[in-house]
Amino acid sequence: MNRLNGKTAVITGGATGIGLAAAKRFIEEGAFVFIYGRRQETLDTAVADLGPNARGLKGSVSDLADLDRLYTAVKAERGTLDIVFANAGVGSQLVLGKITGEHIDETFDTNVKGTIFTVQQALPLMGQGGSIILTGSSAGTTGAPGMTAYSASKAAVRNLARTWAEDLKGTGIRVNVLSPGATATELAKDALGEEGQKVFASMTPLQRMADPAEIGVVAAFLASSDSSFMTASEVAVDGGLAQL
Ligand SMILES: NC(=O)c1ccc[n+]([C@@H]2O[C@H](COP(=O)([O-])OP(=O)(O)OC[C@H]3O[C@@H](n4cnc5c(N)ncnc54)[C@H](OP(=O)(O)O)[C@@H]3O)[C@@H](O)[C@H]2O)c1
C-alpha cells in the first residue's frame, strides 16, 4: 500500500515500541518520518533499522526549545508537515496514599503538556489534509490500581482531540485519539512487570497483549485519507479491554 506516498510525519517516542512500529508502517506506506525522543543511542539504532526515509531528532516533548529545534529541522528538510503522531508517554504506578508531586509532574509534563506542545508547535507547518494522532490508552477510560496519574493524563488526552477538532475547524486538519490496551513494549514491562502483564493479558477479551505492529497499522489508517471523515474520534485498539 502507498497510502502515505510523499507525506512527511513526525512521531514522538518513535524510536521504541508503538512509535517505532508506526514509523516502520508509515515508511512502508511511502512516508518520510522524523522520530523524536530523549535517548540518542536508541534513536540511532532505530534510524539504522528504518532506513533512508527516517531521521532521528533528540529532545523532550516537555521542552519547548527542543520542540522548536525539531520543527526547524522538519521545515529545513521537508518544508511542510502532513502527519503528527504525538505518541511519547510515560507511565508508572503509585497507589492513592503514596502519590507524590514529582510523580504527577513527570506524568503530566510528558503525557499532557508534551502532547499539547508537540501539536501546537507543529501547526505552522501543517495544512489541508493534515492528520494529528494522539496516543491515549484504555487506562483513560477504565480504572486500575495505582494508575491515578497515568489514567487521568490519558483521559485528558482524549479530551484534547475533542477540543482541538473545534479549534481546527476550517483548517482541513483532522485530530483523533488512538487508544491501545496492553501492548508488549518497554513501558508495559516497566509499569506492569511480568506478573502485571499476565494479569492485563488475561483481562483482555482476546486473551493476550498486542504486538506494537497491531497499533502501528491503525496509526497508518488514521494518518491516511482512508480515515478522511474521522475527527475527534477515539479508536480503541485494545483487544476489547476497555469495551465490555
Ligand atoms: N504499552 C502499553 O501497554 C500501552 C497501552 C496504552 C497506551 N500506551 C501509550 O503508548 C505510547 C507509547 O508507549 P510504548 O508502549 O510504545 O512504550 P515505550 O516503548 O516506552 O515508548 C515510549 C516512548 O516515549 C518516549 N518519551 C518518553 N518521554 C519522553 C519525552 N519527555 N520526550 C520525548 N520522548 C519521550 C520514549 O523515548 P525516550 O525515553 O528516549 O525519550 C519512548 O520512545 C505512550 O503514550 C503510552 O502511554 C502504551
TrEMBL record:
UniProt cross-references to Gene3D superfamilies, sorted A to Z: NAD(P)-binding Rossmann-like Domain
Residues in the signal sequence: none
Stretches assigned to the Ketoreductase domain: 7-185
Keywords: Oxidoreductase
InterPro entries xrefs: KR_dom, NAD(P)-bd_dom_sf, Sc_DH/Rdtase_CS, SDR_fam
UniProt record similarity statement: Belongs to the short-chain dehydrogenases/reductases (SDR) family.
Identification of the protein by name: NAD(P)-dependent dehydrogenase (Short-subunit alcohol dehydrogenase family)
GO MF, one example: oxidoreductase activity, acting on NAD(P)H, oxygen as acceptor
